[in-house]
Specification:
Blueprint: H1 6-31, H2 38-41, H3 43-49, H4 51-54, H5 62-68, E1 79-83, H6 89-97, E2 103-107, H7 114-118, E3 125-128, H8 135-138, E4 144-149, H9 158-171, E5 172-182, H10 188-194, E6 197-203, E7 210-216
Parallel strand pairs: 1-2, 1-4, 2-3, 4-5
Antiparallel strand pairs: 5-7, 6-7
Helix pairs in contact: 5-6
The structure holds S-adenosylmethionine.
S-adenosylmethionine is lined by residues 53-56, 59-60, 84-86, 89-90, 107-110, 113, 131-132, 150-152.
Length: 219
């Protein structure tokens, strides 16, 4: 019997331990810092009550938040808009990245998340506790440098989605960016149709893994 040989036996045990350690570390990385305490208190409970509107039971990982904010410049004064802030994992990453003279306007419809966003106490941040439908009336034509969206596009009806994209294009500057993530490729087509330039990135370390669309607006 192979297991009676001590050498094989210790090799087998070592392999099992390494596998379990790898699995544990991967899960710890994916769930990030919110696995034990923050998630049940904030995001998941609120998401659970309104899953269609929230689109996911898990807030984005820091890996995804970092990828979404990669193209933000720390040197220039930017006008940045965030759509669907949740409890602020991406909001924080944006605030960490943008310059002191930049401004971040963030939309969040779910009242439960507002105290988390208000806790940032950052003068550069304006919180709109309202639906993104008001985007066009809150900003002028050609006003915004970058829009980062977490809106659950897959759960939003076609008419709303098309109106949203029209509004996004209206407020974005020439060569302004619309950055959106999704857990499937469902809405790639509608984005391709509306933006002349679109690139995609994949973020495995998120729950679930996400596709990031980076769309460039040409006026
Ligand atoms: C998938 S969650 C993302 C939350 C957070 N940004 C993250 O990445 O963990 C989508 C968020 O969009 C918000 N949302 C959905 N529809 C909205 C709308 N019409 N206007 C504003 N926020 C909306 C939801 O309440 C939810 O917080």
């Amino acid at each position: 019997m192979i297991f009676l040989n001590p050498l094989y036996f210790s090799f087998f045990i070592t392999t099992v331990i390494l596998q379990k350690t790898f699995l544990f570390l991967s899960l710890a990385i994916i769930y990030d810092d919110y696995l034990l305490i923050r998630m049940p208190k904030s995001f998941t409970l609120s998401a659970f009550k309104n899953i269609k509107q929230t689109g996911s039971l898990f807030r984005s990982s820091k890996f995804l938040a970092k990828k979404l904010t990669e193209s933000l410049s720390s040197d220039q004064p930017l006008t940045v808009v965030e759509l669907g802030a949740g409890d602020g994992v991406i909001t924080k990453e944006i605030l960490d990245k943008i310059s002191p003279k930049s401004r971040l306007y963030t939309y969040e419809i779910n009242n439960n998340f507002i105290p988390h966003l208000s806790a940032f106490k950052d003068d550069r941040l304006t919180i709109f506790n309202q639906s993104v439908e008001k985007l066009r009336s809150d900003f002028g034509y050609n006003d915004v440098d970058i829009i980062i969206s977490s809106l659950p596009l897959a759960n939003i009806n076609k008419t709303f989605k098309e109106q949203l994209i029209r509004n996004v294009k209206f407020v974005l500057k020439d060569k302004g960016q619309f950055i959106q993530y999704q857990y499937s490729k469902n809405d790639k087509k509608i984005l391709e149709t509306n933006f002349k330039e679109l690139s995609t990135q994949f973020c495995f370390f998120n729950m679930p893994p996400a596709i990031i669309y980076n769309c460039v607006n040409f006026v």
